[in-house]
TrEMBL record:
<comment type="function">
    <text>Required for the transposition of the insertion element.</text>
</comment>
<dbReference type="InterPro" id="IPR001207">
    <property type="entry name" value="Transposase_mutator"/>
</dbReference>
<comment type="similarity">
    <text>Belongs to the transposase mutator family.</text>
</comment>
<protein>
    <recommendedName>
        <fullName>Mutator family transposase</fullName>
    </recommendedName>
</protein>
<keyword id="KW-0815">Transposition</keyword>
<keyword id="KW-0814">Transposable element</keyword>
<feature type="compositionally biased region" description="Polar residues">
    <location>
        <begin position="59"/>
        <end position="70"/>
    </location>
</feature>
<dbReference type="GO" id="GO:0004803">
    <property type="term" value="F:transposase activity"/>
</dbReference>
<dbReference type="Pfam" id="PF00872">
    <property type="entry name" value="Transposase_mut"/>
</dbReference>
<feature type="region of interest" description="Disordered">
    <location>
        <begin position="52"/>
        <end position="84"/>
    </location>
</feature>
<dbReference type="GO" id="GO:0006313">
    <property type="term" value="P:DNA transposition"/>
</dbReference>
<keyword id="KW-0233">DNA recombination</keyword>
<dbReference type="GO" id="GO:0003677">
    <property type="term" value="F:DNA binding"/>
</dbReference>
<keyword id="KW-0238">DNA-binding</keyword>
<keyword id="KW-0614">Plasmid</keyword>
Length: 404
């Protein structure tokens, strides 16, 4: 639709200052109100079957019945709109629905601010300062609570039959305990799958106070109930009971310790001046061509560093059964497993959202924000780089399991 120059000239008659156009009583705001009221009147005319000022059709008992004024909140502040009514209250306007008090995506704006890590008080201040909107904490909570319905639907959605790789990872979040009223460090676990087509997909998130084999078995059973029948490689961070829980649910899954986590755990024992040298020597272990060569590199590492950092080599030996599967893979697959770029980028997005929060009042509050961070993560590129080479390797190594 094109607005003629003549009409624009007529509309701008008397507009001499910026505030005459953009201010609270300016032309744009008034024009918006008048257009909305005109559209509401047209909707009522379509509903009744006759235009205002004209006679009603024969047999039409419903009539116009005055109007009511409601205050709407939008991105340019609050403003009154006159909404026409009908006699039998059957009119349901589409432009401004019954009970609606916000327009212009104000709900999305609140959710966006919440997803950025702002607290309810921060959101209140932001909306008041920028848009002149006085929004109650209860309204903000109701808007963000609507995310929980989306979370439940997302958490219960059907999953693919098979995932070549599923990476399980955790981060710690401070959440207030409802019973003791104390703030506790709870683990938030995320499962990130890679589909047969090489697309990253967050399969779910779980908050646990006490993680163990029983907890992880319940997670695995949930994934099975949602449709997963097979996982080719499960990458874990070495938690006790985790490999057993995975193989109990998916007996053929190959459990691989996350090399990045193992390296980080090792470096925690080092002084800053030795970290670079220790990391380089650890790289010789997981960068070896075969498991036997890696074992020889581990012996050499222990011989060099046992006197100074005696706990590092034993930690690798304890995890060795879940480390050596890694060496059976082609470099195309190894890179996807040990670099864990996907899970690391996801964690960065989550930590960026929660870093401004000292603690969360409930598990639900933490779940809402973390889910919104995941949603933001999945809007970006989800394809695994160089997947074509890895896919061919999977097809050869796992045969019918990959093709099923």
């Amino acid at each position: 639709m094109t607005i003629s120059k003549e009409l624009l000239d007529e509309l701008l008659t008397g507009v001499k200052r910026p505030e005459d156009l953009l201010g609270d009583s300016g032309l744009l705001k008034e024009l918006k109100i008048r257009l909305m009221e005109r559209m509401l009147g047209a909707e009522l005319s379509a509903h009744l079957g006759y235009e205002e000022g004209k006679a009603a059709p024969p047999g039409q008992s419903n009539r116009r019945n005055g109007s009511t004024t409601k205050v709407l909140k939008g991105q340019d502040g609050a403003f009154p709109v006159t909404v026409p009514r009908d006699r039998d209250s059957s009119f349901e306007p589409e432009l401004i629905k019954k009970g609606q008090t916000r327009i212009d995506g104000i709900d999305d704006r609140i959710i966006g601010l919440y997803a950025a890590g702002l607290t309810v008080r921060d959101i209140q201040t932001h909306l008041l300062d920028l848009y002149g909107l006085k929004v109650s904490p209860d309204l903000i909570s109701r808007v963000t609570d609507a995310v929980l319905d989306e979370v439940r639907e997302w958490q219960g959605r059907a999953l693919d039959r098979m995932y070549p790789i599923v990476i399980f990872d955790a981060l710690r979040v401070k959440i207030r305990d409802a019973d003791s009223r104390t703030v506790k460090n709870k683990a938030v676990y995320v499962a990130l799958g890679v589909t047969r087509e090489g697309v990253r997909e967050v399969l779910g998130l779980w908050i646990a106070e006490n993680e163990g084999a029983k907890f992880w078995l319940s997670v695995m059973n949930e994934l099975k109930n949602r449709g997963i029948q097979d996982i080719l490689i499960a990458v874990v961070d070495g938690l006790k009971g985790f490999p057993e829980a995975i193989t109990a649910a998916f007996p053929e899954a190959m459990v691989q310790t996350c090399i990045v986590h193992l390296v980080r755990h090792s470096l925690n024992f080092c002084s800053w001046k030795d970290r670079k040298a220790v990391a380089a020597d650890l790289r010789r272990i997981y960068g070896a061509a075969t498991a036997d060569m890696a074992a020889a590199e581990l012996d050499a590492f222990e011989e060099k560093w046992a006197g100074k950092y005696a706990s590092i080599a034993p930690a690798w030996r304890r995890a060795w059964p879940e480390v050596i599967p890694f060496f059976a893979f082609d470099p195309a697959i190894r890179k996807i497993i040990y670099t864990t770029n996907a899970i690391e980028s996801l964690n960065r997005v989550i930590r960026k959202s929660i870093k401004t929060r000292g603690s969360f009042p409930t598990d639900d509050a933490a779940t809402k924000l973390i889910y919104l961070a995941i949603r933001s993560f999945e809007k970006d590129g989800r394809n695994v780089r160089e997947w074509f080479a890895a896919r061919n390797q999977f097809a050869i190594m796992f045969g019918e399991r990959f093709a099923a």
